[in-house]
Task: structure prediction
Amino acid sequence: ERDLRQGVLRHVSEAFAVTPPVPGVWHWDSALELVFTPAADWAVGQAYGLDLRPGFLAPQTLLASSRIAFHAPAIVVTLESSDFWEDPTDPKNKRVVIGLQFTHPVDKASLEKRLGIRMRVDPVATFDDAQARGLGFKLVSDDVSAKVWVQSEPITLPERDGAVQVTLGPGVQAARGGEGTIAPLVAEVAVPSVETYFQVAEATTAVATNAAHRMERIATIAFTAPVRVDDLRPHVSVWELPTDRPAIGDAPERHDVVWEDPAEVVPEVLARARKLDLAWLPSDPPWAKEQRCRFDASGGRALYLRVEKGTHAFGDYALVKPFDAVLAVEEFPQSVEIMHEGAVLALSGGRKLSVLARNLTAVEIKLARLLPGSIAHLASQTRGRFQDPDFRGGLEIENLAEVFREVRALAAVSPGEPQYEAVDFGAALASGAPPRGLFELTVAGFDPVTKKAIEDVEDHRIVLVTDLGFLVKDALDGAHDVFVMSLATGQPVAGAEVQLLGRNGLPVVSRLTDDGGRATRARPGARGRR
Result:
C-alpha cells in the first residue's frame, strides 16, 4: 500500500487501468519508475491502452495525454540458414534445408499452412512456370519450437542446374495465439546438376616436413564431393614439363619457357616431359573432398596435372569433364632451427644443443654469454618468453654479453634432407669464467660467397647452463622460502647463495641455504647462484 494522496487512492492499481484488462502487480522500482508485471505473458501483438486516473499525480502536474498506447511484442521470423544438404552416410539423401528463427514458440500447423516449396531446372527461369514442380517437406524444431528447420523431400540431381524456392506467407501465429507475422519470407537455394555436382575445384602444390625432418613435395587436389584414393589413383597423372618448348608446326623451338596455360601442353610437349610417380597419402576419413599425394620434382620447374573423366565420387557420381592444370614447383626453402624446447642445460650433462638445418651450405653460430651483473638489465629490458625474449628499444644481447662467433660448413645432402649440427657450450665455459652461465644462442644460415648471414633464416634461444634448480614458496604470513636442489643428484644444496636483485643489479636480499637447501625470508623473483 501507498498513501498517494491523503487516502483518495491507497493502491497503485487504483491509479491505472489497462485495456484490455490484464491482471498483474504494480511496484515501485525507484522513486521515478513504476513497473507493472503481468500475471501471464502479454498477448502476442495485442494493442493495449494504459489510462491514468485522476488523483494519482499532484494537482499542478500537467499531462499532454492521460492515455498511453502500446503493443505487446509481435511474432517475427528471420531466415537463419539456407543450404543444399547431403547425408554423409547416404549419398542419395540430398535435401534443401531452411532454418527459420521465431521470436516466440510457433504454432506448427499455422506455419505449415503458409509454407510452399517449388523447384525449377534450367532452362525454366521462374518458379511459377508450369514446368516447375512442388516439393514435399517436413518440419523439425528445437525443444521450445522457436527455431524450425524446413526439410524438403529427397532431391535427385537433375541433368541441368536448378534451384529450390521456399516461400512463407504472412500470418504465422505463435503457439499461444495472437496476431501473426506481417512480412512474407522468401529463400532460394541452388541445386547442382549431375555435371556440376562433382568437379575438381583446384589443384595446388606445397612443401611439407615429415616426422624425419625431411622436406617433401605434396600435391593437393580439391573436389566438390568426397572421393576415395583407390578410385582416384588410376585417373590422375602428373608430368614434369621440359624447360624448352619443342618446335611444333611452323612455331620454332623456344627455350626457358614459363608454362602457365594447360592448353599449351600438347602431345609434342608431353613427349619430352617426365611422368612422375605419385605416392598417395591416406586420408581420414577415406572419403574426403581433398586428397594428397607425394612426388619428386626439381624446384623451379612446372608440372602438368590431369584428372581424367570417369573418376567416381561418393554416391557413384562420375566426373563428366576432365580437369588439367599447370602447377609451379617451388624451391625447398632454407631453414635452421634449434631443436628441443627446453631452456636449461645441466652442467653434469653433455652441455650440447642440436641444430637442424635444411638447404644450407653453412651456418653462423653466435654464443653470447651474459656478463656478471647484467641479469637485472636482461630481465628489465626484455619481454616475452624466457627462452625467446624480445629486447626493448635498441638494446641487444651484445650490450650485455661476451660473444663467441663461429662459421661452420655443412655436409652436402640432397635438397630437402636434414643437416644436423651440435653446439657445445664447453668452449665458452672453459674461457676462464665460472663453470656456468646464462647464454643466448643464435644460429643463422650463412652464405660463404657473400660472407654474410642469410636474412630471415635464423633461430635463437636463451639457455641457462647450471646444476642448480630452485623452487619458491609463498607463506600465508607474507614470508617466502626458496628451496635449492642439485639437478645432477636431485638432493638439496646447502650453502647456496640466494639473491633478490634490484633493477640496478645490486642485491636487495641475500641468504644462504641451510642443510635442507632452504633459504628463508627471500622474496618472489629470487635467483639462485652458487
